[in-house]
Design a protein that fits this description.
This protein is an alpha+beta fold and 431 residues long. It has helices spanning 2-45, 74-85, 94-100, 141-152, 185-189, 202-222, 252-255, 288-303, 325-334, 338-345, 353-369, 380-387; strands spanning 52-53, 90-92, 107-110, 114-120, 126-132, 162-167, 172-177, 237-239, 245-247. The structure holds adenosine-5'-triphosphate and magnesium ion.
């Protein structure tokens, strides 16, 4: 009996000892793993990537570009997918960008910030790679990261997504989602005999106008830190599947120096023709400069022409193409002849009365948006409600009272004085 009890005790001690050894081993493995993860994490921070690292610089751990830029390793691929899912901009090396764009083989366009190329991610997703002008080299990396971080955290269904960036010694670039239908200018102004672009009906244009306005409203009114776009124009309204609009290049004015296709004289921003008067005069600039540019975009949607077409002949709708279109619209409105504007906007329309009613709203909102005094322009929230028919639209005042007297023969706008007929009251929406 005593022997049996002794064996039982021994067996129990054996089991307990084995259990303790197993627990200690598991704890040791767990601690080692934690230390390893910490070391890995701090080494990736040493690659100074406060955002996410999509493979890092050329010295990184076999990134997407890796030693062989065309080969994607599965480890980095899962890291890459994780980064995308977490919706943080990824950092790419110049080598990776070269691989995505097949050595920059397909140029999509160029603008004031640089050149845009089409590329493809290893996952097969198409991307647009915007290689920024070299002037950016002067900018501190930290500032670049902070601003890219802000752009990357800005999400709206009507804003183009920033997937990542590159900040190498030689290449500074931004990687965006690719918008398959290109930019709105192509659909508004492409008048070649067999335009590649399909013709958009006014109802669709109205939808695009509302989507664009919602994006700018988000930047102005819903972001933690207000973002002024400074460059609203048809080239920066990109179209995706189903012609859904997304605004591009928000946040770039702060990030980049502009080329001289854009206003640079006094450090002013924007594109001539869309830039509000306060941007090219020594006046305080607020987010209302975007409302002005947005109004100019609405005029171009109504007229399906550039607001100013120098060198063109007489227009087909009773106005010379050389005439500044916004002013022509104002004078039609003032004379009670808005019908001429609406007829042009909805020409070849299938939507009948509905299109006309939407075009009329777009016309009135455009006239409000380009008021000379920023405080007389509506907020983008107002704009959305007016376009959607939720707010009554009061009759607009003359936005061009500060310009030289109107000549029916037509002329481009000439600023005379900074005075305006406006009395400053906010009667615009009649709310
Ligand atoms: N994400 C994108 N997807 C598809 N096409 C794009 C994308 N981004 C830009 N593009 C195309 O590339 C062209 C050039 O763009 P870019 O932004 O460099 O110049 P811009 O829009 O004409 O002027 P700005 O520099 O003032 O924005 C655009 O007009 C557009 O057609
Ligand atoms: Mg652009």
């Amino acid at each position: 009996m005593a022997i049996a009890n002794g064996s039982l005790a021994l067996a129990l001690i054996g089991v307990i000892t084995t259990g303790i050894v197993a627990v200690v081993t598991i704890v040791a493995i767990y601690k080692c793993a934690r230390i390893a993860i910490k070391m890995w994490y701090s080494s990736s921070r040493d690659h100074h990537t406060p955002i996410a690292n999509g493979g890092g610089s050329s010295s990184s751990r076999g990134g997407i570009g890796g030693a062989d830029a065309d080969v994607v390793e599965m480890g980095s691929m899962s890291h890459f997918i994780e980064g995308l899912q977490n919706e943080r901009p990824l950092r790419f090396s110049a080598r990776q960008l070269r691989a995505f764009t097949k050595s920059y083989a397909h140029k999509v366009g160029s603008g004031g910030f640089g050149v845009v190329y089409r590329g493809v991610f290893p996952s097969g997703a198409p991307v647009a790679v915007k290689v920024l002008n070299s002037t950016l080299g002067k900018r501190a990396e930290e500032q670049f990261m902070a601003e890219v971080g802000t752009i990357g955290r800005t999400y709206h269904i009507n804003l183009v997504r920033l997937y990542g960036f590159c900040f190498d010694a030689d290449v500074k670039a931004l990687v965006y989602e690719y918008m398959e239908k290109g930019s709105l200018d192509r659909y508004l102004f492409d008048s070649s005999p067999s335009p590649a672009a399909e013709r958009i009906g006014f109802e669709k244009l109205h939808e695009i106008a509302v989507g664009t306005a919602k994006a700018v409203r988000y930047l102005h009114e819903e972001c933690a830190q207000r973002i002024i776009h400074y460059d609203i124009k048809p080239e920066n309204v990109l179209l995706g599947a189903g012609m859904a609009p997304k605004v591009s290049d928000f946040g770039l004015a702060k990030l980049c120096d502009r080329e001289d296709t854009h206003l640079t004289i006094t450090g002013a921003r924007g594109t001539p023709g869309y830039a509000a008067p306060e941007l090219w005069m020594p006046l305080p600039v607020t987010h209302k400069c975007d409302v002005y540019s947005y109004g100019m975009l609405l005029f171009e949607m109504l007229g399906r022409r550039r607001n100013l077409e120098l060198g063109a002949g007489a227009g087909a709708h009773g106005h010379g193409s050389q005439e500044w279109y916004p002013r022509w619209v104002w004078h039609r409105f003032e004379a009670g002849e808005t019908e001429a504007v609406l007829a042009r906007a909805t020409a070849a329309a299938a939507g009948g009365g509905r299109e006309r009613e939407k075009a009329e709203r777009v016309c009135m909102v455009a006239l409000w948006c380009v008021q000379y005094r920023p405080e007389d322009r509506p907020s983008m929230g107002n704009v959305v409600r007016m376009l959607e028919g939720e707010d009554h639209i009061a009759a607009p005042r003359n936005p061009f009272a500060h310009l030289a007297p109107y000549s029916a023969a037509g002329s481009s706008p000439t600023t005379t004085t900074a005075t305006t007929e406006s009395d400053g009251s906010s009667a615009r929406t009649g709310r």
